[in-house]
Structures are given as C-alpha cells and as structure tokens.
Amino acid sequence: MYKVFFVAAAMLLSAHVYAQEFFIAGSIRDAKNNQLLTGASLQLEGTNRVAVSDAFGRFKFEKVAAGEYTLVAKFIGYSDKSEKVTASSNVEVTIHLDESFVMTDEVVVLSTRADEKTPATFTNLGKEAIQKQNFGQDLPFLLNWTPSAVTTSDAGTGVGYTGIRIRGSDATRINVTVNGIPYNDAESLGTFWVDVPDIAASSQSIQIQRGVGTSTNGGGAFGATINLQTNTRNDDPYATLMSSAGSFGTFRNSLSFGTGLLKDHWVIDGRVSKINSDGFIDRASADLQSYYFSAGFYAGNTMIKAITFGGKERTYQAWYGVPQSRLQNDTEAMLTTASNEGWNEEQTNNLLNSGSRTFNPYTYKNQVDDYKQDHYQLHFSQRISDAFTANASLHYTPGKGYYEEYRYNNKFSDYGIAPVTIGDSVVTSSDLIRRRWLDNDFYGFTYSFNYEKNKLNAVLGGGWNRYDGDHYGQITWAQVSAVPSEYQYYFNNGDKRDFNIFGKATYNFTERFNAYVDLQYRKVTYTATGIENKQNLLNVNESFNFFNPKAGVTFAVSDNQVVYASYSVANREPVRDDFVDALPGKKPKHENLQNVEAGYKLIGKTYMIKANYYLMNYNNQLVLTGQVNDVGASIRTNVDKSYRMGIELEGALKISERFSWNANVTLSKNKIKDFTEVMYDYGTNFDEYNEVKTTYHNTDISFSPNVIAGSGLNYKPVKNFEATLLTKYVGQQYLDNTSDSQRSIDAYVVNDVRLTYTVQPSFMKELALSFLVNNIFEEEYESNGYTWGYAGGGQQYRENYYYPQAGRNFMAMLTLKF
C-alpha cells in the first residue's frame, strides 16, 4: 500500500512539474560592438511562438511549459543564431548576433542610412511597428507619432491626399527614397503618397533622419529624410490577408504572398490592395488601387532583385479647404467670402447650406484627380570580398493623369480663344470643363561601393536621374458649341537632370570614439519651355552646382550611453513654380542650410532616453510673401536669414510587465529675421492697384509650431491582448509669416486608442483582430490651412481657409497570416 501511494505521489509531483510554466527572456546584442538590437525576431523552434526585441533590445516568452527548447534569433544583416535553453525555471539569456557575410537586401539601402556610429538624428521603424498602425491610411499617418512630425489630410481621414511636416519643413524639403531610389516629384520636390497607396503593407523598415542627415540620392534634405525599404528576403512561404472597415465608408483589402526560398536561390513576393473611402469632407471620396511584386535571386555573394510597385488613384478634390466664415457659422462673413471669391448663387448656396466642418466648394460629379504611376527597379549587389561590396540599381517611373474641373463663366481670353459671335451677340465667356494633364517619365541609376575593414567603414555612392514631363490642358466641354472639343489651350515640357556623387566614411579611433565625414557634389539642370496654363510663355534654362559637406563625431561613454555632434551643409534648388511664377526680370536663388546636431542616448534595461539639440540656419529660404505676378499667380521670394532651433526629447519606459510608455516632445523657435509682406490695395473706389509692403522683424516661420509632442501608453492586461493610447499635441501654427494670431491654426491635442488581440492557432501562423478609434475625445481641430487678402473700399479683407479633420471615427481590421 505504501509503495502504491509513493508511486502515485511521485507521478502527481511529476505531472505538477511538467504542468509548471516559466518565462524565457533576454536581450539581443551586436557581437562586434555589444549594441542592443531593436526589431530582431525570435522563435521557439517547433512552435508558433514568436517574439520581437523591443526598444531596449529585450524579448520575452511568457507561460512556456517546462522542457528543452531551441531559441532561434534572426535580424536583417546578421547571421541567424540558435541557442538551447532549458525551461525548468525562469530563463534569462543574452544572444550576440554576428554580422552576416551572406548577401541580404539591406545592402540596397545601407549607403543612404545612418547607424549608431553616425552622428545624425534618426528614428527607425521596423516591420512590426509599421504593421501595428497600418489600417489602410496613407504612410504619413503611420509616422504621425515620430518626433517633430505633423500630419494632415485633405479629406480629413488620412485616406487620399495627405501630407507630413517634420520640424516645420514641408514635403518639398523632405527627401524621400524607396530602396535608395528618389521618390520626390523632380519638378515640385513634393511627395504624393496617394500615388502608392498601402505601400506600408510592403515595407520592411523606414528610417527618418531629421535635419540634413546623411548624403542620399534625389533632392536636398532641408528638414528631414524618409528612407523606405520594401520587403526583404523571407525564406519561408507565407500568405497574409488584411481586411479593414470603418467610418466614412472606408474599406481596405490587401493580399500579400511569398514563395519562400525556391531551389535555394529564388524568392518571389507580391501584394495587391484596394482602398475606398467617402471621406469626412463632403464628396471627398478616394478610390485607390496598388500593387507590389518582386523576384529575387540569391547566390551566396550575389543578389539580383527586380521590383515593381505602383498605384492608380481617383480622388474627389478636397484641396480648396473650408473658409473660416463657414467654420464659425457666420452668415454675414460667409456672404463676404462668396463675394471675395466671385462665387455665383449656386456656389453661395452651397456655402451657406453645407456642414460647418465638411464644406466642399466643388459639386461637379467628376471634379476628380485621376493619376496612375508605376515604379520599376532592378537592384544588383555583389560581395567582392569580406570587406568590399558593390551595388547598382536601375529605375524607371512612368506616370500619367489629370485633374478635371468645372469652371463657371470663364473668360475665353484666359484660354487663348477668340470671342464667339452668336447672332447679334459677342460671347466672351462661358461655363466649361477642363482637364490639366501631366505625362512624365523619370529614370536613371544609382550605385554604391561599400568598404568595411578593421577601423574603417567607407561608402562611395551617387546616381544620375532624368525627369521628362509634359504639362498640357484641354477643354473637354463648353456651353458654347463653337469651342472645339478636346481643345488644347496650353502645352509645356519640363526637363530636369540630377547628378550626384558622395563619399562618406566612419573611422574608429578607439572602440568608443568614431569620426565621420561625408562629402557630396550635386549638379542640377532644369529647362522648361512652352506655354503655361495662364497663357504665359515659359523659357527656363538653369543649372546649379552644389557642394554639401558633413562631419561629426560619436563617443560611447559606456556600452549603453552615446553622445554625438555634427555640422552639415545642404543646398537646394528652387522648384518649378519658383521659376514659372517669378516676377519679370527676377530669378529665384537657391537655398542654403547649415545644420548643427548634438545629442545624447541612454538605453537601460527598462528605460531609454534620447535628447537632441538642433540649429538649422537658412540663407535665402524661399517663402510666400502675398505677392502675385502679372498673371495672378502667388510667388515666393528669398528671405536673407531665417533659422529653426530646438530640443527633441524621446523616452521609453517599461513600467512593469504589463505597462510600457514611450513619448517625445519637440520645443523649438522658428524665426525669420526680416520678412516683407505684400498686400494689394485697390483703392477707395476699387479703381487703383497699389502694392502695400509691411516689414516684420524676428517673425515666426509659417506652419512651424513651437511645441510638438507624442505619446504611446501601452497596456497588456492578458496574454495576446494589447491596448495602446496614442496622444498627439501640436502647438499653434501661423498661416503666414507675420505671427498674427488672427491668421493661425489653433493648438490641438488628439487621442487615439488601438486595441489588438493576436493568437497563433495550430492551422495558421497568426490571427489578429485590431480596432482603432481615432480622435476618441471628439476634438474639433484643423491641421492645415492657408490665407490671402487684399485692401479696397477703405477696408482690409482677409480670408483664412482650413482643413478640418474628422471627429471620432473608427477602423476595424482582421489579419490572417498563413
């Protein structure tokens, strides 16, 4: 009896031991310099348990049954590493990864990115962080919580035309590359994310460099750089379906797939996406389609990868904004707005009877922007030796599309059309429909040679690109039948060529002290000939030669503390409109920027702190003055001296196993030394035309808030469930450069809540349900705007226009991974 009892007790004790659960936790570090690695993936081999190292380089598997496991760690640019662990108690391990000598996709962007030894200010976002927030909104809205960023949406929902400013710098001053290939429009230097909807679904990583940053391809970085890398090699086959639905008739469906490694050499990936939204603003609908396909060949030291991606967008125009009079529901002021705009009775009634925050002046059913853009890239990388790697890339981007407008009572003379005689009447104007077309090609090549051995890491890179774009306009319909159908009333061509070569090197004087130097030469030529849309003759032929030096140092105070400082110079050419709209006899000058960055980073076991000081001194910065040229187009002019100066603070804190918090705040001053505003005075009887100039001293730069803050409070109450409160504060912004609060955007604070529940069932890799509530506290705010004005009849008139963002709205998403 005692023996039976003893055996039974032993069996129960054994069962209890095997029923016990423990955790396996630890950190991931670079074997060479012992730096923590964020975004490394870890898997318990033979299970579907996966973890990703956090901002502190740490990971954790909870509730692991007792037993023997093999822990596999992977990170781009490093060799995979397997480590045996025994879960008979809680396990804590540190895994050191060695740099890989097998060719990976990372080499494509390596030459244009900063790393921990680069004295630059940057933020990295890995695939997991990107996908958490990717409910189908444009990429700027996924970057909204990064430091110094302010985003806006014409439609108010983040779908359609969206924009981002970083440190107050607009999209034309933010250099964007995709796999090292320039993405900014070559003529305007703007970035149109609507042309590549859902590109985030095919993004492996994104690096945002603030300030001048490192040398890259394309236009000069005058505020920031966004460096995007698309999907990298995945050795395992997969399929992912993401479906989202939410407020304002928003739907997004995306299907991604990959073959995994075929015959030890080939990998094929693909994605197709469809996004629709009615928009918050009246009629601000979006119909977006996009795709991504790639085929890669990997053979030890060789990588060849062909990539194509693109999109087709058809968005109803919402770019005119909402007048302040409509926002304030002021009937008398709305009538004044209608008079100032020259609107007819139908347009005025639309203004008076629309929603105060959703007004759209356009009512014509086909008032749309319709554009298609395709990108083709071919990348070749060859590791010549353990120290030397060569990369070359070819690219080609064709784009074609138009925007269509219904125009009320337009003068024929504005279109080069002679008056039309009908019976005894001479008709000089009529309603009409016009299309303005853009048909362009952008192509070229980039290259880099990377050398890393002993204490030296050096890159020689550059590229050549050409843009060839036709701009033309057609009248597709007019009330007066004598106007020929498809009449072309203007045509002009823009041709831009951009050559650059750069060399940069980091030298490790000691294990802790590194010096960095980066020298770039860039040559830009631009010609534009033909007739512009206002019937003015174009004859632009300009060239620029820029030398952009950068230098700095980093010093590792300890394994987890780094200080850095750098000084950089950047030059930037004027954009197309600066040439086209310049006053007769005046040429816009190129802009010059000197940038100082100095920072400190500290990463502890449960906390992270970053502090950065920046000073961006501008010479000849181009700003709007209120002045117009002889055909009525607004012009920009160079201001001699201006600057941006600020402090960026970032922090992350792991409060407990359930709570974590990350936050950032930017405190800045953004000033123009001397600014002259031009106001037009039409006299007491509206029969004069005089320029009234007012000079302001030490005035604020428009759209540059002095305070920007972001926060993410994360809570994991139970296994597989995560709740995050996302908060964004943006301080007051001025619509012009006069520091007048009557022409400004009020400060606002917006809170979003994101909920995610993820499981790994036996029949698939992952099933996730996500829910996003935007603007949960129903903040009424505007994120962008513009202003204009004039004097006449003894009074001064000002019109402010704003872009209201949606109140409380939601998105739900189902993600299936196989």
From TrEMBL:
Keywords: Cell outer membrane, Ion transport, Iron, Iron transport, Membrane, Signal, TonB box, Transmembrane, Transmembrane beta strand, Transport
Signal peptide boundaries: 1-19
Coiled coil: none
Compartment list: Cell outer membrane
Keyword Iron: yes
One annotated Gene Ontology cellular component of this protein: cell outer membrane
Keyword Hydrolase attached: no
Span of domain TonB-dependent receptor-like beta-barrel: 339-776
Domain of life: Bacteria
Protein family per UniProt: Belongs to the TonB-dependent receptor family.
Protein name from the UniProt record: Iron complex outermembrane recepter protein
